[in-house]
């Protein structure tokens, strides 16, 4: 029955205490107990009192082999089992191999002197046994005292091991918590640095966008001014052409008047001689008069066209005035918007600086409190942790290396941003130089246009000379016709008077047009004054914008200085923490022990 019971318990995993006292177990039972101790992994307490296991030497030796192979059993009761000195020797061999048994009760057996010595010798290699009862075994008192001293030594050693295990577990937990807190603090620092970088990038983008907007507005104003200048040049050229035409027409009229006066005098003297020939040539004269009337109509049409052109130029000047007023209003609105945006940026930047300062103060307070608490808790606990200190130093060196690499990356990014800003400034300067070059080219083109106009005036003079030659030919023709006009003297006088009246009317119209042109000249002068005033205003606005751009650049430099200062503070804080940890480790008992070594 014991064999079957013990065979069933070999695979059991729930039974922790087995009490078989007073069951008269024999060789088969002892062997079954040995197999149980080899295979079972849950029984911690085994009570075998009053079973006479020591009588059966083979079974008891098998039982001792199973005990030596067991690593779970902590308490074994073998009282009153008639164990001899040979059985005690086998038990001693088993105890040398066993590393889990803590209590062994061998009272009221027959161990004797030899068995006591064997058990005492096995205690030199067994460090886990805390309690060994040998009363009622005829063991000398000196051996009992030696066994008791060994038990006390094992108990002290076990308590020290438990304490060291507890301390190591507590210290590992604290070290892990410190690691977690350091990683959290490092991540928080990295988050704050990333946020600062994002804010710097955003502010740089906003400033670049504003600078581009201001540059576009300036380009638009320059284009508007260039268009206005071109329009003014066109109007001046048109007015010069019209004045030249009016002057030419006046000269032609004066020439015609003089020619008509001379012709009338000659006709009056020669009409008497050529009365007969006049009848035949009346038709030719009538045709010439119709041609002169056609020429007069053409001149009138030209005058009407000149009036229309003057009106169109007046409308263009009015449109130019409206465009100038609109551009000034838009510039004022943009200036107001830019000032509002600058104020908003100032407020945001002040708020971000205040938040960063408060976060930094909180982090400093938290770190100081944490360091004080860690110093108080670690002064009583850190012992024999030199390997952990070395690991912490390696981690600190890694963190330092990572921080240095990140600092180098941040410095490279700042250098890139500065180079980009310098390149953008160079591009802007090149763009402005290109604009100046275009302005000089436009000025050269205007000078070329003036030269062309002078050439046109020279051509007009040449045409006038040709017309004078043509008038000379007409004079010769009139001299030939003077013989035919004697018969029509009275009619020609009346016709000449009519022509004079018409010419006087045309002269009056031309004088009125001249006065109108003088009024247009005055208006053009007034517009030129307005354009000069607007150009001066635009220059002032450009200077204001340049000053704003310089202010923005100064703000960017201030932000870069703040960022560098914050980085230096973070590096100082890291070095301060490292020095504090090194000083603490060197001031701890472990550090002093290592220095003594």
UniProtKB/TrEMBL annotation:
Question: Which positions are tagged coiled coil?
Answer: 211-245, 289-569
Q: Which Pfam families does the UniProt entry name for this protein?
A: LRR_6 (PF13516)
Q: Which residues cross the membrane?
A: none
Task: Name the predominant localization.
Answer: cytoplasm
What SMART domains does the record tag this protein with? Answer: LRR_RI
Tell me where in or outside the cell this protein is found. Cytoplasm, Cytoskeleton, Microtubule organizing center, Centrosome
Which Gene3D superfamilies does the entry mention? Ribonuclease Inhibitor (3.80.10.10)
The record ties this protein, via InterPro entries, to:
Centro_Cilium_Assembly (IPR052116), Leu-rich_rpt (IPR001611), LRR_dom_sf (IPR032675)
Could you name the Gene Ontology cellular component terms for this entry? centrosome; plasma membrane
* Key words of the record: Coiled coil, Cytoplasm, Cytoskeleton
PANTHER family with a match to the protein in the record: LEUCINE-RICH REPEAT-CONTAINING PROTEIN 45, NY-REN-58 ANTIGEN
Protein name per its UniProtKB record: LRC45 protein
- Originating species: Smutsornis africanus (Double-banded courser)
């Amino acid at each position: 029955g014991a064999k079957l019971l013990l065979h069933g318990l070999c695979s059991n995993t729930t039974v922790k205490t087995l009490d078989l006292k007073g069951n008269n177990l024999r060789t088969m039972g002892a062997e079954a107990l040995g197999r149980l101790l080899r295979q079972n992994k849950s029984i911690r307490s085994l009570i075998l009192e009053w079973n006479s296991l020591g009588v059966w030497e083979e079974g008891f030796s098998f039982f001792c082999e199973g005990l030596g192979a067991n690593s779970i059993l902590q308490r074994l009761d073998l009282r009153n089992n008639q164990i001899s000195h040979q059985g005690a020797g086998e038990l001693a061999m088993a105890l040398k191999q066993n590393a889990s048994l803590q209590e062994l009760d061998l009272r009221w057996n027959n161990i004797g002197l030899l068995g006591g010595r064997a058990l005492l010798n096995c205690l030199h290699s067994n460090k886990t046994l805390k309690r060994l009862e040998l009363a009622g075994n005829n063991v000398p008192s000196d051996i009992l005292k030696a066994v008791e001293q060994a038990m006390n030594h094992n108990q002290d050693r076990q308590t020290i091991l438990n304490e060291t295990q507890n301390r190591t577990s507590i210290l590992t937990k604290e070290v892990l918590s410190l690691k977690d807190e350091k990683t959290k603090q490092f991540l928080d620092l990295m988050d704050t640095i990333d946020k600062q970088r994002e804010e710097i990038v955003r502010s740089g983008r906003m400033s670049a966008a504003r600078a581009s907007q201001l540059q576009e507005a300036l380009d638009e104003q320059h284009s508007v001014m260039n268009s206005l200048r071109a329009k003014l040049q066109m109007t001046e050229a048109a007015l010069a052409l019209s004045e030249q035409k009016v002057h030419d027409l006046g000269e032609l009229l004066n020439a015609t008047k003089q020619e008509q006066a001379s012709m009338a005098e000659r006709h009056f003297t020669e009409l008497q001689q050529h009365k007969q020939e006049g009848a035949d040539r009346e038709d030719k004269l009538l045709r010439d008069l119709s041609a002169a009337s056609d020429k007069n109509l053409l001149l009138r049409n030209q005058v009407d066209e000149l009036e229309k052109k003057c009106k169109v130029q007046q409308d263009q000047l009015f449109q130019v005035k409206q465009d100038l007023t609109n551009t000034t209003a838009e510039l004022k609105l943009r200036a107001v918007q830019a000032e509002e945006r600058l104020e908003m940026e100032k407020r945001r930047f002040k708020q971000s600086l205040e938040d960063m300062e408060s976060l930094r103060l909180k982090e400093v307070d938290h770190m100081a409190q944490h360091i004080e608490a860690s110093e108080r808790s670690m002064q009583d606990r850190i012992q024999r942790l030199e390997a952990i200190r070395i690991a912490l130093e390696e981690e600190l060196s890694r963190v330092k290396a990572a921080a240095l690499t990140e600092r180098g990356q941040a410095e490279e990014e700042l250098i890139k941003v500065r180079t980009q800003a310098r390149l953008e400034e160079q591009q802007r300067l090149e763009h402005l130089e290109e604009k100046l070059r275009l302005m000089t080219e436009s000025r050269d083109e205007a000078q070329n246009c003036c030269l062309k106009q002078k050439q046109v005036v020279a051509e007009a003079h040449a045409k006038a000379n040709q017309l004078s030659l043509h008038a000379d030919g007409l004079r010769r023709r009139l001299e030939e016709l003077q013989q035919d006009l004697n018969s029509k003297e009275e009619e020609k006088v009346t016709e000449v008077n009519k022509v004079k009246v018409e010419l006087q009317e045309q002269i009056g119209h031309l004088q009125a047009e001249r006065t109108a042109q003088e009024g247009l000249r005055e208006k053009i002068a007034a517009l030129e004054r307005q354009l000069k005033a607007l150009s001066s205003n635009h220059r002032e606005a450009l200077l204001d914008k340049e000053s704003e751009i310089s202010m923005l650049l100064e703000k960017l430099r201030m932000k870069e200085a703040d960022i560098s200062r914050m980085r230096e503070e973070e590096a100082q804080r890291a070095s301060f923490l490292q020095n504090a940890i090194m000083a603490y480790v060197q001031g701890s008992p472990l550090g002093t022990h290592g220095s003594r070594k």
